[in-house]
Amino acid sequence: MTGTDQVDASGTTIVALDAAHTDALVRFFASLPEGDRTFIKEDVTDPATVRGWAEDASTRWVARGADGEVDGYVAVRRLPGWSDHVAELRLVVGPRRRGAGLGRELARHAVTEAIASGARKLVVEVVAEQGAALALFTGLGFRGEALLEDHIRDRSGQLQDLMVLAHRVDATWSAMDTLGLSEALDGDGGPDPA
User: Fold this and answer.
1) What range(s) does the N-acetyltransferase domain occupy (predicted)?
2) Angle CA(143)–CA(148)–CA(150) in degrees, nearest 5?
């Protein structure tokens, strides 16, 4: 979170990634089931890759449990060039905290940070068979924008469909303004809908 840490009832804290968290993040990715790592774009089995992320920590956060271990990771990556108004979200929650609301907390955190950074459109890629992830993001206002059939291959060689979900910031804030909700959120740091 910008400026402050966010703590939930279980003692989990969402903090900006820095060098002090990288060893725990390396352990986190190593502990994920192999099938989960299949759908992560970067090679998270390479400690040098994960440690290098601390240099760009302003767009990456970890959820640390009360024991100091990482339970989740989220990143907001601005796209380059003519798509620089678009931010891509990447989210991973470890098995010990799945189904406990941590994914939703991390996703909300990322959406808030992306909007605060000026992103006008947010996108996330989800494997079509990941029903919980689809429900999480659609519950946050993301809508299906593309279905890419047989677009990714899992570790066993099976082809999987990939869905691209999008959240249009201007449309969301315009609808909230119409309902009179934007004034209520002005004190919460919401973007100017104009």
Assistant:
1) 12-168
2) 140
Q: How far apart are CA 9 and CA 116, in angstroms?
A: 25
pLDDT in tens, 36-80: 776 677 778 788 888 888 776 668 999 998 888 899 999 998 888
Q: Closest by alpha carbon to 41, among 158, 125, 157?
A: 125
Residue 131: which residues within 8 A CB-CB, separation 6 or more? none
Query: CB-hemisphere CA count at 13 Å for 183?
Result: 3
Contact 171, 193 (CB under 8 A): no
Q: Which CATH number fits the domain 6-179, given the four candidates 3.40.630.30, 3.60.21.10, 3.20.20.140, 3.40.50.300?
A: 3.40.630.30
